Amino acid sequence: MTDVANRAPAQPGPNDPTVFASGFQEVAALPVGDLSPAADRSYSAPRRVLRRPWVVQLIALLILLAVWQYLTVAGDRVPSIENVVSFMWTEITGGSHGGMLLGEFWGALGLSLQRYAIGLAIGIPAGAVLGLLIGASGWVRGLLNDTTLVLLALPAVVWAFLASLWFGLTSTAPIVAVVLTAIPFVAINLSSGVRGIDAALVEMSRSYKVSRRNQIADLLLGGTLPNALTGVRLAFTTGWNSLLIVEWFGATDGVGWRARFWYDALRYEGFVGWVFLFVILITVLDRLVLRRLERRAFQWNQKPTLSFAEDWGM
Fold first, then answer.
1. Is residue 36 in a domain?
2. Are residues 122 and 97 in the same domain?
3. What is the CATH number of the domain that holds 187?
4. How far apart, in whole angstroms, are the C-alpha atoms of residue 12 and residue 266?
5. What is the pLDDT of residues 39-90, one digit of tens each?
6. Which of 26, 130, 248, 282 could form a disulfide with 18 if both were Cys (CB 3.0 to 4.6 A apart)?
7. What are phi and psi of 80, to 5 degrees?
8. What distances in angstroms separate CA 153 from CA 147, 159, 184, 185, 244, one per listed residue?
9. Are 247 and 119 in contact, with CB atoms under 8 Å apart?
10. Is 17 helix (H, G, I), strand (E, B) or coil?
11. pLDDT tens string 100-126
């Protein structure tokens, strides 16, 4: 080791290709080791497995089922997992719950999804137009921004009660509730994205005489896409909540009404089963549709706005 450290470096020859015309010699690249963070290499194999998002979600699900089973054993007011699964299977297959009560699943689910889709199809474009106007025009921002923020602060249950009061026991009330819930979320997030576009990029596009079409496609849509998708995801979630609340209190059919029916009948396994159906539907929609759409949209721009690994510090 000492001989190597004290050894004088070899002098380059006149025809050495590493010597430049100026007389300086190119320094050879030094070998480097693994540049990955030391913290990642320090984790053991079991800990690396526990850091995977799907493992964390599986553990959370198992904890939920364990707590549910404990509450079932500890008291008689919580239906067991077996009873809930059996009850919902009867609902899905249209079997008998005793007497004249038959299972109803697909009709109620299809009707609620239809109302939900119509409400979002109206609310999201309306919110997008409002958001673009608020973000692009100072006059419109001063006129409608505060009002939209107030509407955003209202909980979904308020829109549900107002829609039921205005339209009664009709199919219009759930649709209106979804529309009124979705508009503020999309508008506020999109207007924030418009105001967040770099003014220097706008001025540069004007200086280089970029066409209006390219300005809209590359600058406007590209700059507002993260905020727009965030607003859409929030609109999907809160709109679903509004729909179920309206159907619970002001409808005679649908998923929310079906849960209310079994609650009033003191069939808690049916009530719990439909509540879990609410959660499963919105979770599947978010994971399989919205997150995949978000990843595809951010392939050329940024990372998704809501990352599981980032939320958990992984």
1. no
2. no
3. 1.10.3720.10
4. 93
5. 455 556 767 767 777 778 788 888 988 888 888 888 777 888 888 888 889 8
6. 26
7. -75, 165
8. 10, 11, 9, 10, 19
9. no
10. coil
11. 677 788 888 889 999 999 999 999 999
pTM above 0.90, yes or no: no
Q: Classify burial at 129, counting beta carbons within 10 Å of its beta carbon; exposed 0-12, middle 13-18, buried 19 or more.
A: middle
- If we measure between CA atoms, which residue out of 222, 156, 119, 235 comes closest to residue 188? 235
Q: Which helix (H) or strand (E) holds 78?
A: none
Element (H, E) at 33: none
Residue 193 · residue 224 · CB < 8 Å: yes
- Shared domain for 233 and 272, answered yes or no, is yes
Q: Are residues 79 and 205 in the same domain?
A: no
Domain check: are 227 and 131 in the same one?
yes
Residue whose entry in the numeric block shows the structure tokens 């979002």: 120
Is the Cα torsion angle 264, 268, 284, 291 positive or negative in sign?
positive
Residues 260, 164 share a domain: yes
User: How many domains does one find in the chain?
Assistant: 2
- d(C-alpha 93, C-alpha 221), whole Å: 46
DSSP letter string, 216-285 = IIIIIHHHHHHHHHHHHHHHHHHHHHHHHHHHHHH-SSSHHHHHHHHHHTT-HHHHHHHHHHHHHHHHHI
In a domain, 120, yes or no: yes
Burial profile 253-279: b = 16 or more Cβ within 10 angstroms, e = fewer: bbbbbbbbbbbeeebbbbbbbbeebbe
| Domain enclosing residue 96, as ranges | 50-101
